[in-house]
Amino acid sequence: MSDVYREIVRMSEAGEPGALVTVTAVEGHTPQVVGAKMIVRPDRGIVGTIGGGRVEHEAIERAIEVMEAGSPRVVTYRLKAELGMCCGGQMELFVEPLVVPERLVLFGAGHVAEAVARFAAPCGFELVVVDERSDWNTPERFSWARERVVGHHGDAIGELGLRVRDYVVIATHNHDYDREILGAVLRTDAGYVGMIGSTRKVDKVLKQLRLEGHDDAQLARTHAPIGLDILAETPEEIGVAIVGELIRHRRQKTSTKTTRGAEVANLASVVGD
What we know:
The protein is α/β, with parallel strands linked by helices. It has nine helices and eleven strands.
């Protein structure tokens, strides 16, 4: 296995983003051949090479752009005319992001959480289930999960080290637990934070968290009541609604779709006075 492929495996296991640059076509004299590969990290560090010089510098910059956009690009360079390189040929590069699976942390192992897990895993989310009830948080009920934490949510939040790419869904069997978890998670870097509950419960929880010192900017990160408004009633329907919202959040900045389904109201709660 080459260093490039070893690094892809390492980055995937570590949850690190990056981009892969591959030479897909050449004409004339070029510093590398078709198939040459280079990994670019967010700090512009590289593994592998596509030939060095100005073309490699330009490729690194395009790779950074691809990481930020989350979508691949094809770029072509005339080495002498455009980049001033002594090589007189032309290179085509395919630059693609190395996608890090989004981690979905489910607080709660009840019926709704089970449905969310069942639907979220095939959509590419890496699942972690946190619930201290060993008779609910079982391998049989959460066979989709990469990790199950059978323990108190307070300990789990600190150990998980929530990151910007992490999604958090709060759906425990205890309203006080939900409030405690939401308050703690809002102090982390988690990129998406959603909580199940009625509008009355959500309003009560947010007001209590304000009294506990959370400001409006923190509270505004909360997606609650969680789930797209599809009039869901059963745990399975609610699970579909929640996963639908997770997908919309994931795609809304990078999607290039020009056709869309029916408009769905945004149910993110507005923090009251």
